[in-house]
Amino acid sequence: MDTKKFILTEKEIPTAWYNILAEMKNKPRPMENPQTKQPLKEEDLYPLFSRAAAHQEMNTTDTWIEIPEEVRDMYKIWRPTPLVRAIGLEKALDTPAHIYFKNESVSPVGSHKLNSAIAQAYFCKQEGITNITTETGAGQWGAALSLAAKHFGLELAVYMVKVSYNQKPYRRSIMETYGAEVIASPSMSTRAGKKIITENPNYQGSLGTAISEAVELAMTTPNCKYVLGSVLNHVALHQTVIGLEAEKQMEMAGEYPDIVIGCFGGGSNFSGISFPFLRHNIAGTANTRFIAAEPESCPKLTRGKFCYDFGDEAGYTPLIPMYSLGHNFAPANIHAGGLRYHGAGSVISQLKHDGLIEAVDIPQLETFKAATLFARTEGIIPAPESSHAIASAIRCALQAREEGKKKTILFNLSGHGLIDMSAYDSYLAGDLNNYHVPDTEIDSNTANLESLA
Amino acid sequence: MDTKKFILTEKEIPTAWYNILAEMKNKPRPMENPQTKQPLKEEDLYPLFSRAAAHQEMNTTDTWIEIPEEVRDMYKIWRPTPLVRAIGLEKALDTPAHIYFKNESVSPVGSHKLNSAIAQAYFCKQEGITNITTETGAGQWGAALSLAAKHFGLELAVYMVKVSYNQKPYRRSIMETYGAEVIASPSMSTRAGKKIITENPNYQGSLGTAISEAVELAMTTPNCKYVLGSVLNHVALHQTVIGLEAEKQMEMAGEYPDIVIGCFGGGSNFSGISFPFLRHNIAGTANTRFIAAEPESCPKLTRGKFCYDFGDEAGYTPLIPMYSLGHNFAPANIHAGGLRYHGAGSVISQLKHDGLIEAVDIPQLETFKAATLFARTEGIIPAPESSHAIASAIRCALQAREEGKKKTILFNLSGHGLIDMSAYDSYLAGDLNNYHVPDTEIDSNTANLESLA
Questions:
Q1: Per-residue pLDDT for A3 more than 80?
Q2: Residues 6 or more apart from A110 whose CB is under 8 A from it?
Q3: Closest chain A residue to the Cα of B425, Cα to Cα
Q4: Is the pLDDT of residue A109 over 80?
Q5: What residues of B are in the A interface, CB distance below 8 Å?
Q6: How many other C-beta atoms are found inside a 10 Å radius of the C-beta of residue A204?
Q7: Is the pLDDT score of A102 beyond 50?
Q8: Mean of the per-residue pLDDT values of chain B
Q9: What are the start-end ranges of the E strands in A149-199?
Q10: Which chain B residues touch A425 with a CB distance below 8 Å?
């Protein structure tokens, strides 16, 4: 464990986010109004989001977007985060590859989610908004937004997927300790929730359902906006601080990545680590591989359909051009709750369609095996979500050994797993399973969706 | 939350530990053999501890003890840790005081305990020892030693206080994920454990009992040593990296502390943050106050007897000169499990007796109130143990406000509370209590112990 950290100073926290939308040669198709099928304009998003977020969502012209001073100030609580050479892991794998990871687990809430939570809460505060609402799966995003909301003096209501609300009571307690209200979803507090509970009283919830409830609350509450933790362009934008810092740190290490890897749920941490490096591929000055590591049980990028689909279960959101398993897809109850989402953001989907990024799907048991090896060699117990990136990095490092090639691999450690120890318990006890999704299920879920291929 | 961090480079990790024993004018009395009442010599400790630890335990001559390169290399996983100016907390308290905290919660196991675990595991490995054993209360120490043992290739058995084993399953899972064996104490695997279970089948354990079991296992197993996480001199020695780093960082901040605070269980983190500053008091070049913050329910320093007592329940250890509540004292079931120990280390006890340090005892509800305010203003959810230091710092900051004086306060944030969220749940639900220990209980527990006052 002769780990070597590369540390930046607070002054080196990026001063601008990188907006890949401005540099993409093929831009994603616009979001559409589901009734009229007309492309959405920025103003169409104002009822739901802060104006600043709506503007960033649609901004296809500015490559660099300044980070407000108040947001940068709050980033200083834990940023810049370390870049670490995983020498212990390299030795255990006996690989010629050099493995680096960006350690986003050092944030006070234990994950990268705070990077966007702070920005979005700040924009709402600036615009005089008093209440915000969101959904959360495993609770990483909800915890981050709870802290950000408290800092800027906003009231926050979080719809938490019911299965996680019951299985991960500690993440709920974290949100409540920061002062947020947490509601198990589906709930009786919204029309969408009531409908689902009435039809299926035992339904344990999904991110799609929780989004429906949060959106409905925002639309029906005065001075209340909805805040999202992944999928959308402005969220990916805020997460680029990860890759921008990593770029400087790889320079300190004297290397440039051959492969960049992030786990994949809706795209926030993968975009964050990838886009700042991907811009050099776009400019033709680098030739890095980018790998999105998703769960075998929720394989939207590897096996989904490229189509227009809703972002939520009830169909409240605009239609988004995405790789999707269908907005009614019910993913298996894997422990990587943050990756249980049916679709990929529109930028990521376009990049995948154009061959600029790759994707792999990884069985749950392989992710826990990788996570345990990582914990024992690098000391940090990773979040089940992040373990997908580790498993993918290990595959690449073993391939480098087979080929006898020195490869430089960079992955994002999006969070630690200290709140997920019951998952490790199950793994060590031999109680975990893999979940393969049958082709027929994907086909039937996406049959009616308009293909973009 | 305009926090300001002060960050050192890896090169600035201390190269030597500070040994206060060499500089104390009144040295503590020696440990004694309970049968012969003779002072213990270094060799008497060889059956139990590594020789290096035994030597450090008795070293009253060398002020600086070099940190082995292998230990410093492993420190680099997370050290140096940040020093943070708690501006958010200062604002919330409307105090002229400047409050700083050393953030030891950033270690991969979430606490300062790794500082000594690494050193002790390294010494055992160097001496060809293959197996080690220890006790743990809340699990912070056990988690740290599990990681250190895995790194140096040692087998580890941890006796975990039964009440924590059942109430904090996540900490147990952390130890198992790192590859350690965890046994609920009292257990049937030792004579000491069997005796207690036979006499009282429902006994939920204590640190004193768990120490008895670990010591017995070490004494009866070939090539096995016992490793302790607090109380003893060599443990406090290893923890001085905390204060040595903090000293450099306070210099970066351009201030020197008027008050230094640590929570107090057996003394490890309090010694770590205090001793490097205390040496300037000893030299007559500073006049800082040092406050050990202990629980109202386990008030050894504020209300215990200065006497010779055993370090464990069964009486296996040498007699230690200490402030003690009696080695059979059964502390209330507070959530700060790491502070539930009947005695204070001999150095701390002597310093307290000589008026070089102070102590306060703090009710449980006050610690959780302080912890929640800290979480909401500084972002980090503190361990219940560390919350005692925060509560004490808040008392000092409010006094500074009353007196209209600018005071510089430094406390050690010994760990985060992400594994202790059930405690916060109980607090937010109004289910927690304070526990005051009656004088009669302390008197009767310590009546037969030889006073040193």
A1: no
A2: A140, A143, A383, A415, A416, A418, A419, B418
A3: A173
A4: yes
A5: 1-5, 7, 9-10, 73-74, 76-78, 88, 106, 108-110, 147, 150-151, 169-171, 173-174, 176-179, 372, 375-376, 378-381, 416, 418-419, 421-422, 424-425, 428
A6: 18
A7: yes
A8: 95
A9: 155-161, 181-185
A10: 169, 173, 176
Cα A377-A382-A383 angle, rounded to 5 deg:
165
Residues of A in contact with B76 (CB under 8 A): 2-5
Give the closest-approach CA distance of A448 to chain B in angstroms: 44
Average pLDDT over residues B27-44: 95
Q: Which of B341, B109, B419 is nearest to A419 (CA)?
A: B419
Residue range B192-215, pLDDT digits in tens: 999 999 999 998 888 888 999 999
| Contact (Cβ atoms closer than 8 angstroms) between residue A391 and residue A372 | no
Residues of A with CB under 8 A from a CB of B: 1-5, 7, 9-10, 73-74, 76-78, 88, 106, 108-110, 147, 150-151, 169-171, 173-174, 176-179, 372, 375-376, 378-381, 418-419, 421-422, 424-425, 428
Matching residue, tokens 């103003």:
A43
Q: What is the pLDDT of residue A13?
A: 96
Cis ω for the linkage preceding A186 (within 30 of 0)? yes
Instruction: Give the DSSP H/E element, type plus range, for residue B116.
Output: helix B114-126
pLDDT of residue A167: 81
* pLDDT higher than 60, residue B3: no
Q: Are A16 and A67 in contact (CB under 8 A)?
A: yes
Query: Phi first, then psi: what are they for B295, rounded to 5°?
Result: -75, 145
Q: Do A381 and B176 touch (CB under 8 A)?
A: no
* Residue entry with tokens 């961090």: B5
Asked if this assembly's ipTM is beyond 0.95, the reply is no
The arithmetic mean of pLDDT across residues A410-414, rounded, is 98
**Closest-CA distance of chain A to residue B279, Å:** 31
Residue at token pair 């029906």:
A220
Question: For B422, which DSSP code?
Answer: H
